């Protein structure tokens, strides 16, 4: 067994305690890579982001599912900056610039700064002659004056973005990693090797483009990541497809098509899945009634909640609580 498989398995076991709140991954063969990414993020305060230039992630549903939390930066500062349409598209253009930089030069990695002042190291993911994507790790910080100037520039001329709000979010949520880059880079290279090796296996059984030039639509990854994050953060509230599409800067038809393509379910079903997973924690760890749990997790009708739960989980909420409750 090669070294990176052994190390990823080790980190998968060591970081399993972090993943109790993650959903849909219990039977996923790529669970360890999800655990490893969360381990790096939480142990060293590193924000990890996977950019897909080639379309190698969606060729396998389980890999897509495992990497979904890492396809875009969804911290409150980034989400606020990208709430402005122009700023959102500036972020997308930067992905294309990353691709061009690696495509036009033989870089082992480079250090980049986004238009809103966030700094990260970018490591390529290559398979033979193909540039698959990149691993972005941040956020490293410069002097406060330079950071403020970039944030102010990003907010300039926008009717939605306010510098004071943006900078407050930056100070609250953006902190430097607790690891030196020379110690982090070997782990990121390990991750790049793993993803390259995984693609090498998958491409033998999954159809891929034979075009000489291929560039994946990164907007699709951004939309999916933002939509999933919005659903997770607002699952206890009423969520409409229209407001979700507005949040993701796209049409409702495009958003619905992406969800069906990448998750194999429609948006409302996905919302219900998130709510059901949250309700399982309540059933196991609280003494609240079934009706109270239904309302807390976003279901207006407790009877409808019970029907959806039974259909998705295979047993009723009452039976689930009886089997798995942690309280006496």
Automatic annotation (TrEMBL):
InterPro entries: Homeodomain-like_sf, HTH_AraC, HTH_AraC-typ_CS, PocR_dom, Tscrpt_reg_AraC-type_HTH. It holds the Pfam family PocR. The keyword Cytoplasm does not apply. Residues 225-323 form the HTH araC/xylS-type domain. The keyword Glycoprotein does not apply. GO terms for molecular function: DNA-binding transcription factor activity; sequence-specific DNA binding. Keywords: DNA-binding, Transcription, Transcription regulation. This is Helix-turn-helix domain-containing protein. It comes from Schaedlerella arabinosiphila.
């Amino acid at each position: 067994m090669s070294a990176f498989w052994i190390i990823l398995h080790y980190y998968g076991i060591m970081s399993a305690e972090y993943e109790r709140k993650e959903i849909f991954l219990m039977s996923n063969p790529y669970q360890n890579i999800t655990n490893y990414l969360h381990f790096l993020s939480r142990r060293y305060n590193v924000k990890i982001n996977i950019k897909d230039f080639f379309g190698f992630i969606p060729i396998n549903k389980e890999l897509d599912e495992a990497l979904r939390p890492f396809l875009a930066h969804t911290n409150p500062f980034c989400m606020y900056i990208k709430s402005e349409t122009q700023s959102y598209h500036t972020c997308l253009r930067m992905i294309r610039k990353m691709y061009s930089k690696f495509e036009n030069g033989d870089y082992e990695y480079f250090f980049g700064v986004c238009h809103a002042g966030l700094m990260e190291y970018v490591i390529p993911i290559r398979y033979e002659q193909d540039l698959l994507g990149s691993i972005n790790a941040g956020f490293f910080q410069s002097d406060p004056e330079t950071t403020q100037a970039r944030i102010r520039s990003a907010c300039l001329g926008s009717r939605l973005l306010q510098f004071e709000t943006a900078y407050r979010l930056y100070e609250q949520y953006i902190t430097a990693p607790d690891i030196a880059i020379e110690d982090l880079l070997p782990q990121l290279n390990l991750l790049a090797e793993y993803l390259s090796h995984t693609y090498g296996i998958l491409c033998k059984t999954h159809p891929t483009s034979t075009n000489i030039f291929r560039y994946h639509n990164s907007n699709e990854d951004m939309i999916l990541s933002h939509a999933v994050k919005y659903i997770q953060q607002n699952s206890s509230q009423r969520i409409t497809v229209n407001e979700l599409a507005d949040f993701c800067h796209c049409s409702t038809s495009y958003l619905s098509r992406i969800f069906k393509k990448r998750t194999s379910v429609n948006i409302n079903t996905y919302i219900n899945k998130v709510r059901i997973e949250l309700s399982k924690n309540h059933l196991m760890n609280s003494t609240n009634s079934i009706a109270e749990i239904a309302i807390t997790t976003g279901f207006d009708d407790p009877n409808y909640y019970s029907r959806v739960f039974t259909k998705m989980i295979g047993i009723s909420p009452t039976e689930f609580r009886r089997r798995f409750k942690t309280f006496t």
